[in-house]
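Sample intake sheet
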Amino acid sequence: MTNWMKRILVTGTMLAGLVTAAHADPFRIGYLIPNPVGDVGWSHELDAGAKAIQEHFGDKVEVQTVNSLGEGPDATRVMDKMVADGFNMLILGSFGYQQDGLKLAKRYPNLSVVHIGGYLNAKNFSTLAPRHYEAAYLCGMAAGMVTKSETLGVIAAFPLPEVLNIMNAYVLGAQSTNQSLKPVKVIWLNSWFDPAKEKASAESLASQGSDVIYSLFPGTPAPVAVAEQLGVYATVTHSDNTKYAPTKHLCAGQLNFGPVLIDKVQQAMDKAFKGDDVFAGVKEGTIAVAGLNNDLSADQKAQILATQDQMRAGTFNPFTGPIASNDGKDAVPAGTALDDAAIKSMKFLVKGIDTTIPN
């Protein structure tokens, strides 16, 4: 074969490779969100995570987001169709998506699934849980600093271990800055999304003397807006809600799903996906305190942020004993600290919370 013929073959092979690369199919990701996206809250932050993935990877990925997708048959149909259509990965944003997502992962070993929340794992099924309790402790510090009535109120979604560890951390944070707190009042919402009940709960707590209200897993910003109207402070999970309470938004735990999800997508694209249990917080950039009210002094803000820096460095665990439960038991002995497994399976309330865990 002559040299010019060899050059033609080599050039043709290179061009064919370039054409193939240029027309490579994008990595397809199905992204399921339970509620309307809105401009704050859980679904909003999930949507922000989807946008972060698309921005980071560009045309290498295709992210198809479906929101307002209730748990149950509708979600199952959407998941099944995405897998049948050749999607490479699913990112599931609601606790109720877990079982069906796991079934699909076991049925399709080449499918990568990230379930945000939950507790089950498989080789190709990973869970991601934010350490909400870290920001809750910091916001609790702020609540203890500003309360005048010494009465805090909490609107809690469901009595799940994750909700319990968040509530406990919040109260421990408040107790760390205020030793005179009265028993913390709690209203169980028993819903992830109930604007009318959230509003009524905030009004009820304020009428009972709570001058700081913590909306723990709110479906809407309704409790924050009510707090502004009634002249009491609001703290909240998920997002900075300052826009809904310009003068009374005290503190928020701000989520940022982007960094961890980008890492999981890269794993899947590299065929190195890990079906692990990711517990991500301040250290990973998944959660941070936000929207601190200017009624807090510079020294008070500095104290809160210094504690956040300790969390980032891994030198501070809010669940370090001695911690007593509200039924008089020794929940965390002196000289010990709860590990991740114990935090994620928490089944007690700390001393100073005026409620019991519903059955």
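Comment: Residues 1-22 have pLDDT under 50 and may be disordered. Residues 161 and 292 are 27 Å apart (CA to CA).
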